[in-house]
Amino acid sequence: MKLNATRSMGLVLLGGIFVAGCASIPGLGKPDPRWADYKNWTKITEKPSTGNTQGLGGVHMGPEGYRDVYVNETGLAMITGEGPYDFPVGTVIVKEQFKDKAAWESGKGAAHTISLKVADNEGQNSDDWNWALGYTGKVQQTIAKPDCVACHTIANALNQSDYVFSVPAYLEANEAN
Ligand code: HEC
């Protein structure tokens, strides 16, 4: 535990130096290799989600936004299945969000949020997921603002879907929006 803490502090420090070092050279931040090529994954949203979908509030570009979801091979069968849901370790889900329909049609200016299943403890366990904000964002256990895990707990209340909203029952229920 102590070792781990020391090690991650080292990583945080190194990360800080890296980011600071790149700050003056725009565009050099590299995406994490776990999702760098997400555009080659399966897009599970047949139509983009938009409108005031359940649990959304104002995040993910809000009701005006247009949102697509991509999943890697590891999580594909689970996210497109009927449950019970327990995502395999290594699942990575990328949400691509545009501010409105015109931006979505242009394909430009997407913002990204990413969920990663990093462990598989018994039951639906919030510690099993990590989160990243932005295509070149850093993977974090919690992102307090906006609080990814707190809000994604709603997905468990709706469909018992292991902190993931975009399972078939959710997509169907929100299709008309
Ligand atoms: C206020 C609630 C809320 C917060 C906060 C929130 N999300 Fe979401 N998230 C949602 C909802 C609702 C959906 C699906 C709805 C939609 O896209 O229309 C979603 C979808 C996603 C998806 C697509 C997979 C899935 O679960 O459906 C990812 C990835 C994601 N969010 C990541 C994040 C990350 C990373 C953060 C924190 C930086 C975050 N979210 C914060 C509500 C939230």
Compact summary:
By secondary structure, the protein is an alpha+beta fold.
What does this structure look like?
The chain is an alpha+beta fold and 177 residues long. The chain folds into two domains: 1-29; 31-173, 3-Layer(bba) Sandwich (Chalcone isomerase), CATH 3.50.70. Helix content is 29%, strand content 16%. Strands 1, 2, 3, 4, 5 and 6 form a six-stranded antiparallel sheet that branches. The longest helix has 21 residues, at 2-22. The radius of gyration is 17 Å and the shape is globular.
**Number of separate strands:** 6
Assembly state: single chain
Q: Which strand-content bin applies to the residues?
A: 15-25%
Give the averaged pLDDT, no decimals. Answer: 87
Cα radius of gyration in angstroms = 17 Å
**What small ligands are held by the chains?**
heme C
User: How many domains comprise the coordinates?
Assistant: 2
- Tally of helical segments: 5
Helical proportion? 25-40%
List the defining traits of the structure above.
single chain; 177 residues; six-stranded antiparallel sheet; 5 helices; globular
What is the fold's blueprint, element by element?
Layout: H1 2-22, E1 42-43, E2 49-50, E3 66-71, H2 73-79, E4 92-98, H3 101-106, E5 111-117, E6 129-133, H4 148-159, H5 168-173
Antiparallel strand pairs: 1-3, 2-3, 3-4, 4-5, 5-6
The structure holds heme C.
Heme C (HEC) binds next to strand 3, strand 4, strand 5, strand 6 and helix 4.
